[in-house]
Design brief:
The complex is a heterodimer of chains A (309) and B (267).
Chain A (H helix, E strand, L loop, with lengths): L1 E10 L2 E11 L4 E5 L6 H8 L7 E6 L2 E2 L4 H7 E4 L11 H12 L4 H14 L15 H15 L3 E5 L7 H16 L3 E6 L2 H7 L2 E6 L2 E6 L1 H7 L4 E7 L8 H4 L4 E7 L2 E6 L2 H14 L4 E8 L2 H9 L5
Parallel strand pairs in A: 3-8, 3-9, 6-7, 7-8
Antiparallel strand pairs in A: 1-2, 1-4, 4-5, 9-10, 11-13, 11-14, 12-13
Helix pairs in contact in A: 3-4, 3-5, 4-5
Chain B lengths: L19 H18 L1 H23 L7 H18 L1 H12 L1 H7 L4 H31 L4 H28 L3 H17 L12 H6 L4 H13 L6 H27 L5
The chains are: A alpha/beta (309), B mainly alpha (267).
């Protein structure tokens, strides 16, 4: 298990992570969902012993990251958001060297393992091409493959499908799930809602260095006021009278972001005609109406008060 | 492996412990191999050395009143070249930090001590490989054939290379601005190699240089290499100076490296 206990990281006067507490269970896929700059990468680098926490503690499989960093490093494999590879090397050499450093596989076993992952992600034919000559998507695959080939006890992926096309994204998700099935605990940092929802068993929402919510995507969505969202687009510059809608018992909350109004409610279909009539009578000009079930994006908006993308 | 499975299971346990020496060597080997991927650097530097030796050194030897100045200059050039080349590792590490590659390297199961020793070792061995052609040219020209003398000289050069890589790594993690780092390392390279007795005897140096030159690591190495190759003896004082230089900068480099990187300088 990985435990963050009131962990903090301060860079100068900036708290990149503050009072962050979280337990990651063995053999789960945990999604760390947050916008750029939320502190996800800092959390991972502290866990990976690159940065030292300035407050609190982190333990990985019982090893404290400050007291026993070498033990922690033996357990972890991190695939970074941007490929961190020797540009002068080809994909095969990058992965082979990574396995040499992180495993005790012999030469033949390493070659077999590398060939397997490179074939899986369709990079075998380009295995000798220097990585600095590769496209962003190819380099990203090489980065992810380091951890997929290593199969560490704790696998960390930072935006694993950034720059990848749709088929490659689906494949990468499948491979990450298989990694978990083979016994790894997986942490996926992402700012993509669908990735967090489809890949993770639990999602931790991180904002401004703090943990704001954690649970399964279903529970997080269920917990969000009402279970449905009515999205209204009103004319620019109109002050929206929240009180007109909060008079309905089924309406849990109303938020406004410029001319977009989100009404969190239950029984939306039944209430929709009443709401439209009330607003129209109140002089509000409605441009569009869209009723939908709560998504992870709404959950994020609800917890943080801001859009993720 | 089932038909729907992409990652095949293996019977090997991949999470065992790689030996400490194995990890240090792999870190060193990585730096050494970068040299062989760009062999033209060795070729061009060797050519420049040959021109320097056969044009400049011959020319100036005729003007200087000093017994066998050509030999003095040739041996000193190799020493100065080792120092100069050993600075390159600092540029590599600075670039890795800027590109984020260093973060990756620091997540590998290598202790910080192993990491810095591996890098310094790699940088030093790389420098030694680099100067082999130049050393051979000088040895042939000056008829240095005693294996023990050559071995002692190589040891001196290696110690110098090891210490300068430590100094270079220390600078790479101390100076944060790229421009400032380039200027600092270039000046340091000039200072270490030129404010020394490698190329010109102490008595010929200006007074203000003569005050500092005896304490330069390149001076220690120069005296030691000259004594080994020409005097066929070991100069204990110079050797001790070199060892102190290596120890100070490796420990200093490792300490600063450890504190600054884990403190999140590159965050």
């Amino acid at each position: 298990m990985i435990s963050f206990d009131k962990t903090g990281k301060r860079f100068g006067t900036l708290d990149a992570v503050k009072d962050f507490s979280l337990d990651v269970r063995d053999k789960e896929i945990l999604g760390l969902l947050g916008p750029n700059g939320a502190g996800k990468t800092t959390l991972m680098l502290m866990m990976g012993t690159v940065y030292r926490p300035t407050s609190g503690s982190i333990s990985v499989d019982g090893f404290d990251v400050i007291k026993h960093p070498n033990n922690v490093r033996k357990l972890i494999g991190i695939a970074f958001q941007d490929a961190r590879v020797d540009g002068i090397l080809g994909a095969f050499d990058v992965l082979n060297w990574h396995l040499k450093m992180t495993t005790v596989l012999d030469k033949e076993e390493r070659a077999e393992r590398v060939e397997q992952v490179l074939r899986a992600v369709d990079l075998w034919d380009a295995r000798k091409k220097r990585t600095w000559l590769m496209s962003g998507g190819m380099r990203k695959k090489v980065e992810d493959c380091k951890v997929l080939a290593q199969r560490p006890k704790i696998a960390v992926f930072d935006e694993p499908t950034a720059f990848l096309d749709v088929p490659s994204r689906l494949l990468m998700w499948k491979m990450i799930r298989e990694l978990r099935d083979q016994g790894s605990t997986v942490i996926v940092a992402t700012n993509m809602m669908d990735e967090a929802e489809r890949l993770s068993e639990r999602v931790a929402i991180v904002n401004r260095g703090k943990l704001v919510a954690i649970d399964t995507p279903e529970v997080l969505k269920g917990r969000t006021k009402g279970g449905e969202v009515l999205e209204l687009t009103v004319d620019d510059g109109q002050e929206f009278p929240r009180g007109l809608l909060t008079q309905f018992g089924e309406v849990q909350d109303v938020t406004q972001n410029e001319n977009k109004v989100s009404v969190y409610l239950s029984s939306g279909r039944l209430l929709l005609p009443k709401i439209v009539e009330t607003l129209t009578t109140g002089g509000i000009k409605i441009q569009s109406v869209h009723l939908k079930e709560v998504t992870l994006e709404d959950v994020f908006l609800n917890y943080t008060g801001q859009n993720l993308e | 492996m089932s038909s729907s499975t992409i990652l095949a299971k293996t019977s090997s346990d991949p999470t065992g412990q790689v030996s400490t020496s194995g990890l240090v060597w792999e870190m060193a080997r990585r730096d050494i191999l970068t040299l062989f991927r760009t062999p033209w650097i060795i070729i061009s530097r060797s050519m420049a050395f040959v021109i320097q030796l056969f044009v400049f050194a011959y020319f100036i030897s005729g003007m200087v009143v000093y017994p066998n100045f050509f030999q003095y200059y040739a041996v000193g050039s190799v020493v100065a070249m080792v120092a100069s080349i050993s600075f390159i590792i600092g540029y590599d590490i600075f670039e890795e930090a800027e590109e984020g590659l260093l973060d990756y390297l620091l997540t590998l199961p290598v202790s910080r001590r192993q990491f810095i020793i591996g890098r310094a070792l790699g940088g030093a061995i790389r420098s030694m490989i680099y100067i082999i052609p130049m050393f051979v040219i000088v040895a042939v020209l000056e008829h240095f054939a005693n294996p023990l003398s050559i071995l002692a000289a190589v040891l001196d050069l290696f110690l110098l290379a090891f210490g300068v890589t430590g100094l270079s790594i220390t600078m790479a993690v101390t100076v944060r601005s790229a421009n400032r780092f380039d200027v600092t390392l270039a000046l340091l390279d000039l200072a270490v190699t030129r404010i020394s007795v490698a190329l010109y005897p102490l008595t010929y140096l200006p007074n203000y240089v003569r005050l500092i030159a005896p304490y330069s690591p390149v001076t220690f190495a120069s005296i030691s290499v000259h004594d080994a190759l020409i005097g066929t003896s070991l100069n204990a004082t110079s050797l001790a100076g070199l060892l102190a230089f290596v120890a100070i900068f490796l420990v200093l480099g490792a300490t600063i490296y450890f504190r600054r990187l884990e403190g999140g300088v590159y965050g």
